[in-house]
Amino acid sequence: MTLEFEPVSGLTGPGEAKSNIDLLARFFPDAVVDGTVDVEVLRDLLGDDAVPNTAEAFGLRWPGMAEARRLSTLPPTGTFLPKPEESVGWDDTRNLVIEGDNLEVLRLLRRGYTNKVDVIYIDPPYNTGNDFVYDDKRTTSQAQHEAVTGQRDDEGVLQVGEGSDRAQDRKAGASLHTKWLSMMYPRLLIAHHLLKETGVIIVAIDDTEHARLKLLMDRVLGAENFIANITWQGGRKNDSRYVSVGHDYMLIYAKNEGSLSANSVRWREERPADNVIREAAKKVWIDSGRKPEKATELMKAWIKSLPEGHPAKENNRFYEFEPDGRVFRKNNISWPGGGGPRYDVIHPTTGLPVRVPGSGWRFSPERMKREIDANLIMWGKITLSTSTGRHI
């Protein structure tokens, strides 16, 4: 068979140190001399927005952070090799299962999949206090961590005892958090490169590192791209000392939330009643003689006859009919919570602008035009209509 994947032959790839310097040279040639970046010149070119190293800044910091960041810029040292003899359906499937150290695999993927991935889901090792398998050849030992943070003097003597304000368990905890963050940081940086502008990343986590992971993802992906913190309820644990914790979290971030918004992306799950209502609407349409007003009356009567608690009774807005027999629901077309875009929408009958809702329109001008062209906007006899039809 012929593989459709293009081989990667370049000596460097996006996100790697050499590629980053090449980008700087393209935009700021005065700051790059013989392949070396003059940081002071670059700071001058960037102006007041380039803060000095001594400036105070808000954000997450830990010992070893710079080294962890550097790991994300290194080029891969290996390559992908297909194994048809170990594969199932090799000639037909388009799925890939990749085995290897995940940091190295991510570096390899970056060579061919930068800005091409729709969704990334990560279920990282939770910080249980045990040693990590992913040491990346650079995680610090307890003693090294204490030396970096000033807890040991130049001779390696641990500064404890009288006059010390750090408890032993706090020092140990800081080291464990440091190792975990240094493991996550380079992987998230490369994952960010892989995502499309409309891509989304989901990371599972428990209580131990939730707060630090949130700050880390704010740094890597931008706090403005935070989408949601979803609580996942599992089984209760019987080993709890104080509270029986049976939940985990999923932190969801967009690569560019503005791109999702501009494309009117919505994540929706079909209601349990929708299929029931569709089937009922087909029968009602025939029984009505294919007359929209009569079909609407029959649909209302059918919903009213349902027992309490029936899912279709809870969604009793689904009883309007199009002339072709499609059933739909009315929905508010104003922006929820306020702050929506404001622009003129011309009523097709009166030729006058429709009054803009106080909270603004739900859609962008481009999306509104698409809705109107698809005949999904319901117009009142006057200029005050703000409903949109949604077929089911």
Please describe what this structure looks like:
With 392 residues, the chain is of the alpha+beta class. It contains twelve helices and ten strands. It has helices at 17-27, 39-46, 65-73, 102-113, 142-148, 168-194, 207-221, 257-262, 272-287, 292-305, 311-314, 365-373, and strands spanning 32-33, 36-37, 117-122, 195-205, 226-233, 247-254, 320-321, 327-332, 377-378, 387-391. The strands form three sheets. Strands 3-4-6-5 form a four-stranded mixed sheet. A four-stranded antiparallel sheet has the order 7-8-10-9. β1 and β2 (36-37) form a beta hairpin. The longest helix is centred in the middle third of the chain and has 27 residues, at 168-194. The two termini are 44 Å apart. Mean pLDDT is 80; it is low at 161-166 and 383-389.
